[in-house]
Specification:
5 helices; two-stranded antiparallel ribbon; 5 strands; alpha/beta
């Protein structure tokens, strides 16, 4: 499993130069972060720069990518869970989801697993979801539309 590649373009939606309503708004909240090595030893303690300081955020991403470049998928999940903030997993409950669901159940069982059930899944998908829930004891949170599939298609 590879590390995340940072994007090099700036998010123009949060740039006061592109939106006059943001000129007086505080668009730079600080985010706390405790970095740990994969074996749990503290590497450093830092507060990430304001979100508007994109170059520093890219440096932090580059550092995390370097640290996690040779890590196993299980180590990456443990690293993410150790960052101090809440984590969650979203899933389509496709057959390919089993590996990530197992990793979360094994290394971050407190993390909720969110499934947006559109009502258009196959019977196999629902059986798979039931099997994963029974086997892995996930904190599964299923979200369904307010309108049934039939109602949605009729209007």
């Amino acid at each position: 499993m590879g590390a995340v590649s940072p994007q090099s373009d700036t998010n123009l939606a949060n740039d006061p130069a592109n939106d006059p309503d943001l000129e007086s708004a505080d668009t730079s909240p600080a985010i706390g972060c405790q970095l740990e090595s994969l074996n749990g030893d503290a590497i450093s303690s830092a507060t990430l720069p304001p979100i508007g300081d994109f170059d520093d955020v890219l440096d932090d991403l580059a550092s995390a990518n370097e640290q996690l470049a040779t890590a196993s998928a299980a180590q990456i999940v443990r690293w993410a869970a150790a960052q101090g903030g809440p984590i969650m997993l979203s899933t389509s409950m496709g057959a390919g989801s089993a590996v990530m669901l197992h990793l979360i159940a094994e290394h971050a069982p407190e993390a909720p697993v969110v499934w947006a059930d559109t009502g258009y899944n196959t019977p196999d998908t629902y059986r798979f979801a039931e099997q994963m829930q029974e086997t892995l004891d996930l904190d599964l949170r299923v979200y369904t539309p307010l309108l049934t599939t039939a109602h949605s298609e009729a209007i």
